[in-house]
Automatic annotation (TrEMBL), chain A:
This is OppF_2 protein. Its main location: membrane. Residues 6-256 form the ABC transporter domain. Gene3D superfamilies: P-loop containing nucleotide triphosphate hydrolases. Belongs to the ABC transporter superfamily. SMART domains: AAA.
Automatic annotation (TrEMBL), chain B:
CDD domains: ABC_NikE_OppD_transporters. One of its GO terms (biological process) is transmembrane transport. This is OppD_2 protein. It comes from the Bacteria. It is a peripheral membrane protein. Belongs to the ABC transporter superfamily. It comes from Jannaschia aquimarina. One of its GO terms (molecular function) is ATP hydrolysis activity. Residues 9-260 form the ABC transporter domain. SMART domains: AAA. The keyword Cell membrane applies.
Length: 360, 334
């Protein structure tokens, strides 16, 4: 079993809330509140959930764009969770990010060539000619016409601007890329082009992705495994086919049933849809017990008292829910086996590593 | 499904263009459609295909200039709104026709409490007393599923979550019992769970109040769930119209076919590679004299470059604007 490229354990990112004249801290937004996952080399882990659940914060924290509150992060064998920003400089090239809004993340006053070569200026000792050659190579790789190198971002369409952002992220030959809603701002027909590009680059360069999105159908397309987040925590993590075929956590079930299927014959089955009531609680003041207990259709007494552990309930499938915890009267789910037992087998053993009992 | 067959809105040959510094933009070109009582017409098409401009043309919401409505009729219960006075149009808006737009923050006034924003049209259009209008406002907020409605009348828009604001917008649109509700991407910015709540509400409005609804979206999943009939727009034109099931089962226009192939779903077959429609949408710098889809169409032939196909009926309630024999029902070649 190859070692995962990315290992995250009990990651917490809390933002302080200050108030009053003295700006005293009166609380904290628990944007990410103890999440654990692995990403294997060459794999895409999808991270889904509704807006505000902590996906972006999680992605940024893993790349250490924040000083994290707590937890461990290991990337490519290096523990980076508590390194200072100065020593992080050496690992920065291996990990990159692609943002949602290509418009906002590209400097409008820089040419495409300068935007793409900026990381090269920063982290390499390449000559001007070498950088120029690298920029043209990158533009070609992401499907941009290299003759446009001296144009400015506003001269490009949304999809092309996202290609510029991807080219820049690739400049330093990273191994791991966090894609934070990279297609959310694009038109449907353009979304497919960008997703196909990301997949081709992954095959060609052996990239590892954390693919953040609220689009469950697109994540089903691109991800190998999927983590579902709710209010700062991971509710469920499973191989893609298992998760979509048989979601275990009541939140995953509700989320999937809310996606309108492009099939009018199914619109008659309205009754089967689980419509969640009420709003998501504030991450500054999450409920006691399970953080989904205020909206869960299957809520039990224990859920309001005890926060369920994030446990491996069948090989490779992790759920934080008392329904599947025999200790609290739950039952282990039946094993689905997935569409293809071979791949299910291969996926077993990736996060969180098999035995983590007694390790909260 | 309710089938009140009374036509509420009938649009004929609508043409809207913009005069800009860099030339004209022919945004809407000879668009015709109608909507019946108790019917939900879904409108799909990629961005820039003219969906919003069409709907804004109907009730005088476009800035003129730069916009100009060059031809057409917009019959609301037989009355041509393109000939109506500005005063009459003001009455129609928020009265007989309700609107919901994608971003509630741009349509709700941030400096007034939401209660006021519902009460005000009720008093203006329906002449209700202050007390009666407030009671009706509470009823409406309850109808759209806002908990503790009476206590929230004096709250400001920023005190509501995104989903709640969108419901407030719907409540305002519904305030004066409109015959017609026009919703332009009303759930695009919302999470799926909130979207599901709103779609459930819309079903109820159509079925229980018999409202005629036009629902614009780029999400074919949403269309499949709520539409009775679908209009597919491309390059400022209607390229196909059909009842929802035939549209998904037997799409005729090459653009509709391509569109249906590009969407991934959460159930069903998972494609190894996503289909893409290669190329770019057309530049609308001249009035179209050829098929707007010709440059991206796998089936385009000579005639498509020389003439703009008119909509031809291919089955009951189903029409398509395409010269290729496969659109008329012959087996596709490619
Ligand atoms: N810099 C910050 N300071 C305070 N709160 C923040 C900050 N960044 C994000 N948050 C809060 O953390 C929560 C999670 O946000 P985010 O990670 O952006 O969610 P998502 O990407 O899933 O929409 C939200 O409640 C958000 O308001
Ligand atoms: N104020 C305007 N000035 C010039 N062109 C405009 C204006 N508003 C819209 N357009 C153009 O009209 C066309 C149709 O736009 P729109 O109806 O908004 O598309 P959709 O709603 O289908 O995305 C587009 O080409 C758009 O650029
Ligand atoms: Mg985000
Ligand atoms: Mg629009």
């Amino acid at each position: 079993m190859t070692r995962p490229l990315v290992e995250v354990r009990d990651l917490k990112m809390h933002f302080p809330i200050h108030a009053g004249l003295l700006r005293r801290q009166i609380g904290a937004v628990r944007a990410v509140d103890g999440v654990s996952f692995d990403i294997r080399e060459g794999e895409t882990l999808g991270l889904v959930g509704e807006s505000g659940c902590g996906k972006s914060t999680c992605g940024r924290a893993v790349l250490r764009l924040y000083d994290i509150t707590d937890g461990e992060i290991v990337i490519d064998g290096k523990a980076i969770g508590h390194e200072d920003q100065n020593s992080l400089r050496h690992v920065r090239p291996t990990m990159q990010m692609v943002f949602q809004d290509p418009q906002a993340s590209l400097n409008p006053r820089m040419t495409v060539a300068r935007i793409i070569s900026e990381p090269l200026d920063e982290h390499t000792k390449m000559s001007g000619a070498e950088k120029r050659a690298r920029v043209l190579e990158l533009m070609d790789k992401v499907g941009l016409n290299p003759t446009f190198a001296s144009r400015y971002p506003h001269e490009f369409s949304g999809g092309q601007r996202q290609r510029i952002g991807i080219a820049r992220a690739l400049a330093l030959n990273p191994k791991f890329i966090v894609c934070d809603e990279p297609i959310a701002a694009l038109d449907v027909s353009i979304q497919a082009q960008v997703v196909n590009l990301l997949e081709e680059l992954q095959d060609e360069l052996g990239l590892t992705y954390l693919f953040i999105s609220h689009d469950l159908s697109m994540v089903r397309h691109i991800a190998d495994r999927v983590a579902v987040m709710y209010l700062g925590k991971i509710a469920e993590l499973a191989p893609r086919d298992d998760l979509y075929a048989q979601p275990l956590h009541p939140y995953t079930q509700a989320l999937l049933s809310a996606v309108p299927e492009p099939d009018p014959a199914q619109s008659d089955n309205q009754g089967e849809r689980i419509v969640l009531r009420g709003d998501v609680p504030s991450p500054a003041n999450p409920p006691d017990g399970c953080n989904f207990c205020t909206r869960c259709p299957a809520v039990m007494d224990v859920c309001r008292r005890i926060d369920p552990d994030f446990r491996e309930v069948t090989p490779g499938r992790y759920v934080a829910c008392h329904l599947y915890d025999p200790e609290h009267g739950g039952t282990a789910p039946e094993q689905t086996g997935g569409a293809n037992p071979g791949t299910a087998q291969a996926r077993t053993g990736t996060y969180p590593s098999t035995q983590q009992g007694g390790n909260p | 499904m309710p089938s009140g067959d009374r036509t509420v809105l009938e649009v004929r040959g609508l043409r809207t263009a913009f005069q800009t510094r860099s030339g004209s933009v022919y945004a809407v070109n000879d668009v015709s459609f109608d909507v019946k009582r108790g019917e939900l017409l879904g409108v799909v098409g990629e961005s820039g295909s003219g969906k919003s401009v069409t709907m804004m043309s109907l009730i005088g919401l476009l800035p003129m200039p730069p916009a100009r409505i060059e031809a057409g009729e917009v019959l609301l219960d037989g009355e041509d709104l393109l000939k109506a006075s500005p005063a009459r149009l003001r009455n129609v808006r928020g009265g007989e026709v309700g609107f919901v737009f994608q971003d509630p923050m741009t349509s709700l006034n941030p400096v007034f409490p939401v209660g006021f924003q519902i009460v005000e049209p009720l008093r203006r259009h329906m002449g209700l007393s202050k007390k009666a209008a407030r009671d009706r406002a509470v009823e409406l907020l309850e109808l759209v599923g806002i908990p503790g409605a009476r206590a929230r009348l004096d709250d400001y828009p920023h005190q509501f979550s995104g989903g709640m604001r969108q419901r407030v917008m719907i409540a305002i649109a519904l305030a004066c019992d409109p015959k017609l509700l026009i919703a332009d991407e009303p759930t695009t910015a919302l999470d799926v769970t909130i979207q599901a709540q709103i779609l459930e509400l819309v079903h109820k409005l159509r079925d229980e109040l018999g409202m005629a609804i036009v629902w614009i979206t780029h999400d074919l999943g949403v269309i499949a769930q709520i539409a009775d009939r679908v209009l597919v727009m491309y390059g400022g034109q209607v390229v196909e119209q059909a009842p929802v099931r035939p549209l998904f089962r037997d799409p005729r226009h090459p653009y509709t076919r391509a569109l249906l192939k590009t969407i991934p779903s959460v159930t069903g077959e998972r494609a190894a590679k996503l289909q893409v429609i290669e190329g770019q949408p057309p530049i609308l710098g001249a009035f179209p004299t050829a098929c707007p889809f010709r440059d991206r169409c796998p089936l385009a032939f000579e005639r498509c470059h020389a003439q703009n196909p008119a909509r031809e009926v291919v089955a009951e309630g189903h029409d398509v604007a395409c010269f290729h024999p496969s659109a008329q029902g012959a087996e596709a070649v490619a």
